[in-house]
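lol forgot to send this yesterday, sorry. struct tokens for the thing we talked abt
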């Protein structure tokens, strides 16, 4: 339907809402998740976002710039709220257990086995930039810092078994998360993932195996 010509200029129709950066990144993230940085073509990204290559490059500089913005968007939207949610729990050991159980569940229930953008990018041998790799490392370090902080609280409460050092154990817990997210893409067996979580948590209870 076309407006009457007499009103075309005196009362113009509002312009369609332009896509925000958040909208664009939410459309680009599944492409990077499913295909990785190297496998995500410019055509894939323009079709997903609805923008031309020139428009995407105008906003982000290049494909690497878009990828790096997607990493931050993903971490801020998916990881940070999760860490804040479990960090608010009074029981630091329960906070760690709850986070690992949540990740085990969502990993097993991932219907397309797309995994986690941060973990996928960390494990990807593809040619992502040094800047993007450092960015992924920094965002995963936030997860490690969560574990270290919770472990230090448990130690201060006298609840950490002898021989457990928070920095070293936080590294092992981060490795558990990497294993969870990676194994689930190969074989999303809930029992297998739960056993991995149970083994990690056994070290944090009195009588556990302690550090290897």
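and heres what i got for the seq, position by position
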């Amino acid at each position: 339907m076309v407006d009457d010509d007499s009103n075309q200029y005196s009362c113009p129709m509002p312009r369609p809402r332009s896509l925000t950066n958040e909208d664009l990144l939410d459309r680009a993230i599944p492409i990077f998740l499913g295909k990785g940085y190297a496998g995500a073509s410019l055509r894939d990204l323009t079709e997903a976002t609805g923008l031309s290559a020139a428009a995407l490059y105008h906003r982000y500089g290049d494909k690497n710039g878009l990828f790096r913005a997607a990493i931050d968007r993903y971490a801020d939207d998916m990881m940070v709220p999760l860490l804040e949610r479990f960090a608010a729990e009074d029981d630091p050991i329960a906070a760690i257990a709850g986070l690992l159980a949540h990740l085990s569940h969502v990993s097993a229930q991932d219907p397309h086995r797309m995994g986690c953008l941060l973990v996928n990018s960390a494990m990807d041998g593809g040619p992502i930039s040094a800047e993007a790799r450092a960015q992924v490392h920094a965002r995963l370090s936030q997860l490690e810092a969560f574990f270290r902080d919770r472990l230090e609280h448990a130690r201060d409460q006298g609840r950490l078994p002898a021989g457990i050092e928070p920095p070293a154990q936080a590294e092992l817990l981060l490795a558990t998360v990497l294993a969870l997210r990676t194994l689930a893409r190969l074989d999303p067996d809930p029992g297998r993932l739960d056993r991995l979580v149970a083994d990690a948590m056994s070290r944090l209870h009195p009588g556990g195996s302690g550090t290897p």
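The two ends are 72 Å apart (CA to CA). anyway ping me if u want another try
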